[in-house]
Amino acid sequence: MPNRFREIPFTLLSIGLRATAFSDSASRLKYCLLVLFVGAIVTMTARADALKYGWQKVDGINLFYREGGPSTAPAIVFLHGNPSSSIMYQEVMQGLASSHSWHVLAVDYPSFGYSDAPDHNLYRYTFDHLAETVRKFLLARGVTRYGLYMQDYGVPIGFRLISAAPEEITCIMVQNGVIHLDGFPSAQDEAGELRRHWKSRNAEIDKRRTEYTKNLQFPKAAGWEYGDKMSPDAILLMTASAQRPGVIEARNLRDAPKAEIHILDTLPIN
Fold this sequence. Notes:
Helix content: 40-55%
CATH class of the largest domain: Alpha Beta
Strand order of the largest sheet: 1-2-4-3-5-6
CATH topology of the largest domain: Rossmann fold
CATH architecture of the largest domain: 3-Layer(aba) Sandwich
Number of strands: 6
Radius of gyration: 23 Å
Order of helices and strands: HHHEEEHEHEHEHHHHH
């Protein structure tokens, strides 16, 4: 939709239409429907235009991002989980950005979403390294003070950002993520399969994960298990991204979440 049309105040458009003489009730009904239709289109377009998209190069890796809102407004950085991407925050980011009160930003980690998936022999796929990459990304985008919204994989990445520069963090929002081993029952037993896998790669576990990912299906009516609240678009992107060459090997991260809950005791929040 052309910018000049979007900028027409809806109230002015409505006043102009009301000045039209109606010969019958059918004409009045058409007028009302037209007003509602134009208003809906203007609102949806403004919301859709709230975000911009692109790739930021960091250490030779093209990282996809979604960003919106005034760059001078308080910033919120959204860190996604596994196996999703920044698309999981699309709607909430649109809402915040369209309010013009927040600067919102989300990035796809290497091998996730639309970001590059460098070979695991060239890029260390550990939480430490992912956090370092995200920090460099934020600096490249000019974001040096921000709140964190973290989910799943985003939590160990986010808490590493907090550890590295606590003075940059304005607030913390954690959704369904592990920040210490007490919240990770399957990893509490040092002799258990997962803990042993962290210390020494278990080829059988990697094989199971590989087969599971290769067999993921694209969205379709038969066998759809996510209900009517999950976007098939997000599932399609997740599946297509995960099945790219080299991604499965890359995502078998090589380090544990670590116990980081103590950070909350000393973090200065303003």
